[in-house]
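RETRY 2/3 - previous attempt timed out on the joint model. Re-submitting the same 710-residue input unchanged.
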Amino acid sequence: MHPTTLMYTSSLLLMFAVLLYPLLVTFTSLPLNNDWASSHAKTAVKSAFLISLAPLSLFLSTGMEAVTSSWTWMVTTTLDITLSFKFDHYSIIFIPIALYVTWSILEFATWYMHSDPLMNRFFKYLLTFLVAMLILVSANNLFQLFIGWEGVGIMSFLLIGWWHGRADANTAALQAVLYNRVGDIGLILGMAWLATNVNSWDIQQMFILSKNLDMTLPLLGLILAATGKSAQFGLHPWLPAAMEGPTPVSALLHSSTMVVAGIFLLIRMSPLMENNQTALTLCLCLGALTTMFTATCALTQNDIKKIVAFSTSSQLGLMMVTIGLNQPQLAFLHICTHAFFKAMLFLCSGSVIHSLNDEQDIRKMGGLHHLAPFTSSCLTVGSLALTGTPFLAGFFSKDAIIEALNTSHVNAWALTLTLIATSFTAIYSLRVIFFVTMGTPRFLPLSPINENNPAVINPLKRLAWGSIFGGLLVMLNINLFKTPVLTMPAELKLAALAVSILGLLTALELATLTSKQFKVTPLRTPHHFSTSLGFVPAIIHRQIPQLSLLLGQKIASQMVDQTWLEKTGPKAIANATTPLASATSNMQQGLIKTYLTLFLMTLVLVTLISTT
Amino acid sequence: MTPTHFTISSAFLLGMMGLAFHRTHLLSALLCLEAMMLALFIALSLWSLQLDATGCSTAPMLMLAFSACEASAGLALLVATARTHGTDHMQALNLLQC
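RETRY 2/3 succeeded.
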């Protein structure tokens, strides 16, 4: 085996071994010591990150990609499935970033979940999730990817419902499972079509063998899978509801890793989508609608975690738009940079929430710039990176996407929506910073504001370095697959920056109006639309069960059971015959003697007449 | 009318008059019913003898079987009447007539 491939494969094997060892320790019946979480789990992830830097550096210096097929899992007459790992540009760059972010989140979680008696179980769940995510990202065939896909779905369910005594948490976990399941139908449709038409689930074989086939149906299935897992419009309500889980869960699953799994699937399958204009247009319009709708919903939320969740959803829509522009690598870049600043935003939220004694409403925060300076600074850096401030992490990916959007022959409506959503990003980011860090405190005086724990400071510091330099580092070291358009009118080049600054100025103006009564009777309808999340959860979560129950009642019970099997069958005979029988018996009065006498007399008459 | 024809017809008619003009007991009506059946049996038996028609030889047996069923049904009704009304007097059966 070539030494580079050997290095890749052995690094991945070592990573899995390092990550699985703490989990295997928990399966023995020995009781865990109290700091198992920090001594074993966090150290395992840190070691795995350092191990993953080896393939990364090798890839950056040689640019070599590899595919490893090892153990033959199943051999059927037509389909072979082997354990197969793909070390390409996407997985080699994503795995270190995911491990870096997870390391920071686990260290933060040792502080955040310190008072939880089941903290070790929490870390076990997070580690299991991480292993499933790595399986998903490094999979070379769809079967292995599906294993990772389902794994992250289940761990998401378990982690969202962590505080399962709370009914809202259980509802949110159920929503996550149901919406992901609808997406899984699409994935299974795609897999079934590919297995029956292309006869393989290996990525390389699929790409070659599907050159001349019409791939619309499996691509629609894969887009449905991405809609479910990455919370695109239509299957999006689970993502804001998933904020019921603890903040480390939100930071890891629902900002950096799990929700990008759907986009990652589409990026892996992008060669199939290159020539299919239907699929590309669908991705574009769906992504544009998602990013606009969720940015609108984020404008008026009052829970800090919900604002960040909608921000995640909006950025996922932007990634979907990028895929619709046939630029999968830019979407991947956005995944990588987004992981840094979004995880940091969630960790800052977690620090603020714990500091204010579990207060999550931004209307009851304020003035934290002086009281928790480090957290506020990280919040500001993260928000600036999110809005695409030049030369921070988000700029390199987001600006590249907007430029590609502006210079391609694309749906003008999708373009408009994306630009408006970009300006909304600036608006709600400023709203968060204004309410949380600026102004005067609106919380109780005796709040345990303490950010001096190194378990809080170090993760935030690491992610802040990532948010500032991550984009630059990634961009400097990769080769772009598609040549970007480098010449465009100045207005298009500055479009992203211009709309963000416009949004920022609007938000500043609105922020100064919070202490003045601008309108005597405010316009409440758009506010209600935005706060109630577009009424989508309120309508859909009631309408669909009601339709199902009505269907059950009308068709199963009333139509089949009562009508066909009772009234038109056995009871019909009884209901038709009973009136006849009662009429007949009412007519006969029972005067037998009279009847018989008359009968006799007529008989005698007949006899006499016949004989004479 | 031949004497045989007259005899059987008059036997049948007499039985029917007894059935129609019964006064008190249901049992006497049932006995007259049996008499009618007997007359019909004799008539059917003489039919094949007088007309030399061997094809109708089985008719009397069938007739007898059905009359036995009918007699048993009548007796069951008599027993049921005796159980519900206490007697088999004919006046008792008309009590609840509307």
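Chain A is about 75% helix and 5% strand. Closing ticket.
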